[in-house]
Design goal:
With 450 residues, this protein is an alpha+beta fold. It is built from twelve helices and 19 strands. The protein has a six-stranded mixed beta sheet. The protein is globular and about 60 Å long. The chain starts with a helix and ends with a helix.
């Protein structure tokens, strides 16, 4: 990761996902350096006697709210009320270009790909059984100057940003589908050549505008678009998207430019309260908004019909895509399971795999859960079933729900839409003033963070 040393000095405690490191959370009491692996003293290595970094990692290893709960709260509420900067460099970064690129993308991706360069499209990839192989963004791009963020190519071009934990699986799926169909395209993996910083929150536009001459207003740079811009004198591909439900941009940056761009952003955002934030905050912010994690809320054994992602599927067009036939058959029959949202008011830590009860009977289990700090509730997503019968809105609404956790039963409230900003005002930059309660909670969290 090009930002490893920079973030380590800022107090980052890292996580690992499939061999990639990513920021987990940030300590307020100075950095603890990651030591070289000591092989437990074998092979002539000296065994470490001081384990400060391990002790920081252990603060998050619990089946209850962890000791770093207030650190996560501070990062989340700072993002909701000011701005957070997330290092998401472990994302997969792939280009699909060439004579058949448009034809290949029409077949591989469920959403409509007939957009002009500059569009960024949220879409799924399916297998032949309509199972979700991935949900990701695909940006339509023009040929550029040949850099890692702005490649030159012949024909149509698409930039695919895939969540790091599933990136290799996503790439393998694309390569397999292209090979099976015989498309004449080039697939390039530039994951190691680029970093990615995501600046999110009400102040993100103000902060970024201090470092670029590119217009960032809604009309000039609308949501779900991308373009090459200069940030602090460095060329980056900016995508106006969000995985946390806020106004913001992802900056896809050549590796050699990551550190100066990061430093410039932190300096420019200091007066507005910009903070470093990690994936423990992303987990909370994304579930609060209702954005799914592939491998948890959506998996290969879930279809877009069941997962609430039919809006990503071009079923109103004549364009075929992999899995369409199976998906249309499932749609005719109706969903036999359905992803839904629950909130729990009790002071309990939900982790996933808890039982869902409807009118006292088991109907499914939770896939993912976390504490939502602005809502100040536990939020959980899971799938419910009706004894093999079709799931209807009336059936969902008519039940009384509970969640079983560690042998105890807790009342739960069902939500058919996200309980947080269901109309997407925030990603458009339409904010109300933060409540005094949320500001006080943020300041208390900052004071309590470890």
């Amino acid at each position: 990761d090009p930002l490893h040393e920079e973030l380590e000095a800022a107090g980052c405690v890292y996580q690992e996902r499939l061999g990639w490191e990513r920021p987990g959370w940030f300590t307020k009491h100075g950095p603890v350096h990651v030591k070289a692996y000591d092989w437990y003293g074998a092979y002539g290595n000296l065994r470490h006697t001081e384990h400060g970094y391990k002790e920081r990692l252990n603060l998050d290893y619990t089946f209850d709210h962890p000791e770093i709960h207030e650190n996560i709260r501070a990062e989340c509420l700072s993002t909701r009320t000011a701005a957070g900067l997330f290092n998401m460099s472990y994302f997969g970064k792939f280009y699909l270009t060439g004579p058949d690129a448009r034809k290949a993308c029409d077949w591989i991706f469920t959403n409509k790909m007939n957009a002009a360069p500059g569009a960024t499209i949220y879409t799924c990839m399916l297998n032949k059984n309509a199972g979700i192989e991935a949900d990701l963004t695909v940006s339509v791009i023009d040929s550029g100057d040949g850099g890692s963020a702005d490649p030159s190519f012949q024909g149509d071009g698409y930039y695919i940003a895939a969540a790091g934990g599933a990136a290799f699986q996503n790439l393998a799926h694309i390569q397999t589908v292209v090979q099976d169909a015989g498309f004449n395209v080039d697939i390039s993996d530039r994951s190691r050549d680029m970093g990615m910083l995501s600046i999110q929150g009400p102040k993100s536009r103000d902060i970024l505008s201090r470092l670029t001459d590119a217009p960032l207003d809604n009309e000039s740079f609308p949501f779900s678009t991308n373009r090459m811009i200069e940030v602090a004198g460095h060329k980056v591909r900016a995508l106006r998207v969000s995985f946390v439900g806020e106004l913001g941009w992802e900056l896809h940056i050549p590796s050699e430019s990551c550190v100066p761009v990061y430093r410039a952003l932190m300096e420019a955002g200091a007066e507005d309260g910009l903070v470093n934030a990690g994936y423990r905050a992303i987990d909370s912010l994304s579930i609060e908004k209702g954005y799914p994690h592939w491998h948890q809320e959506v998996r290969m054994d879930d279809s877009p019909l069941e997962a609430g992602l039919l809006f990503t599927c071009k079923l109103k067009t004549d364009t075929d895509f992999l899995g369409r036939t199976a998906l249309e058959e499932k749609r005719k029959l109706g969903a036999r399971k359905k992803k839904v949202c629950f909130t729990v008011d009790d002071n309990v830590c939900l982790l996933g795999l808890e039982a869902i009860l409807r009118n006292g009977e088991y109907v499914g289990h939770i896939r993912r859960a976390d504490h939502a700090f602005l809502l100040e509730q536990e939020v959980a997503y899971g799938y419910v079933m009706n004894n093999g019968e079709k799931i209807t809105q009336d059936w969902l609404k008519s039940g009384e729900y509970e969640i079983e956790s560690k042998g105890k039963i807790y009342p739960a409230t069902l939500h058919l839409k996200s309980p947080f900003d269901a109309t997407n005002k925030r990603i458009q930059g339409n904010y109300e003033e933060p409540t005094q309660e949320s500001l006080i909670s943020m300041e208390r969290a900052r004071a309590s963070a470890i």
